[in-house]
Amino acid sequence: MVKVLILRHAPSLTGGTLAGRRDVDADCTAARDFSWMRGRIGAVQRIVASPARRCLQTLQALGLDADDTRPALWEQDHGAWEGLAYADLPDLGAMPAADLALHRPDGGESFEDMAGRVRPELQAMTRDTLVVGHAGTVRAGLSLVVGHAALSFHVAPLSLTVLHRHGDAWSVESVNVTAP
After folding, report:
1. Which residues, other chains included, contact 132 with Cβ-Cβ below 8 Å and sequence gap of 6+?
2. Whole-model pTM above 0.70?
3. Domains in the chain, start-ordered, CATH in brackets?
4. How do residues 65-124 score in pLDDT, each as one tens digit?
5. Which of 31, 67, 115, 160 is least surrounded by Cβ atoms within 10 Å, i.e. has the fewest?
6. Sequential DSSP letters for 48-109
7. Nearest to 68 by CA among 114, 115, 129, 8
């Protein structure tokens, strides 16, 4: 069995805009939350991270270093939506999860495009690993178990999701664990 812990980075400092592939800083000032999360993570055999600054800053605030950074772990590219205020994002209405997973903003990628580059990274892990990534990274991992329904999960900043792989089968231990 392989345990894959996926930690979403600390809150992005974006001024209320969609970050996506923009390289922005993280707010790493919640020392108590970082201390609690470091204890919750415990010992892992390997640490990999998105090369995004906010992910590397989160690792540093935890007192950890990545063994490797993986460009495939970058957040979804939201194309023309990058940098828009959340209130200005288009309302896609009540779209079925399978359709939403395939929707591409102009100049960007769909959830399925992003998950298609993240899932092989997770599937290739052969030992207990901490992955520091994005909300999309977490949802891509969850999609190994629940398919496109992974898009329905809220993923809080500095939250931990734990998956297990048994051969080719995946299971979920916990989702969206945050400091109390």
Report:
1. 7, 9, 47, 48, 49, 50, 55, 56, 58, 59, 66
2. yes
3. 2-83+96-177 (3.40.50.1240)
4. 999 999 999 999 999 999 999 999 999 888 899 999 999 999 999 999 999 999 999 999
5. 31
6. EE-S-HHHHHHHHHTT---SEE-GGGSPP--GGGTT-BGGGS----S--HHHHHH---TTS-
7. 129
